[in-house]
Please model this.
Amino acid sequence: MPSLIISRNGSYLGLLVANTILGSAMPMMLILGGLAGLMLAPSTALATLPSSLSALAGLLAASPFSLLMGRHWRKILFFAGGACAIIGSLVGVWALISGSFILLCLAHLALGAALACYQFFRFAAAETVSAEWQPVAISLILTSGLIAAFVGPQVFILAKDALAPVPLAGAYAALAVLSVIGLVPLAMTRLPRPPKSVPQTLRERLASLAVLKRKPIRLAVGLGAVSQGIMVFLMVPTPLAMIGCGFTEALAGDVIRWHVVAMFAPSFFTGFLIKTFGTQRIAFIGIGLLIVASLAAMSGLTSAHFYGALILLGVGWNFGFIGATSILANSVSDEEKALVQGANDTVIALVSTLCAFAAGALIAGLGWIVLAGVSTGLLILAFVTLLREARAIA
Model:
């Protein structure tokens, strides 16, 4: 028994280190998607397209990744995600050197697929501990994003001119290097093989998805989709909105940095808050904070407004997303995990994709204040709907 506990702790540590390094790509992608898009896009309206395509790639990749992880070793699929990141980064370098917007879009498709794969680190981490400690395990695995929040933007600043005179190409090259380094601790990590009861035929898979009708699972998927969707809706156009207001790229990058810090810093205690106050309560507090973030974004266009709104947005996402993940992890059996996790992340990716494309259209056509107003209305509607669902469960 002691050796089993040590083995599981070692597995968790390996996942934590790998996720920390590989996750550093996320804040860099947030910065690069908008800035490189603005540089190469044929029109300003298309500047957010690379970031939107990253969300679309997550939509397309989430379910296949989950099904494959349910049938094969998770570790193999995490390596596939790392390979997508390396390829996407190198294509990004090529896109900037050749001045090709199409190649840049392809690069972000590959990078988006990689991020979709990395989302499953939280589920893999939950499987290394007992059910009682799953919220804490999920919460702590997300704290790795706190380190990524500092490492990613700093690597961007140091590397963006490394391949001068081509701006930003060095940052994409640095993404490839980080991805290679992140695969090293993953290679030394042992993860359990999945159960062999995943449905094999299309009919069996569709029948198994009936589990999504269960109210706790519907609530978990709804909370996760709202948290992730609104976060993308406000975050993706932030660099463009700030540059449009006359702020510098460096300041826009710093706002994104502190947004990502706010996304992951609460993870040190979110799991313990869930154990103390309950999963649903913390998740709904998260949705409430997202509403406050949207109101803050509506209230002005100063740097303080951008910092405040994006920091609140990060904390709200953390509470809502970790709460949703914990509800889902505790509502499915081992046999249901692969299909339900894949369906969950597919729904979240679908909502994120729609929000990313909608944000690009709104920021180009109507501006930041209108975009923030739309997010406020959507959040209030979602809050009321999900609260009714939660009360029906109780």
Q: What stands out?
A: Residues 1-8 have pLDDT under 50 and may be disordered.
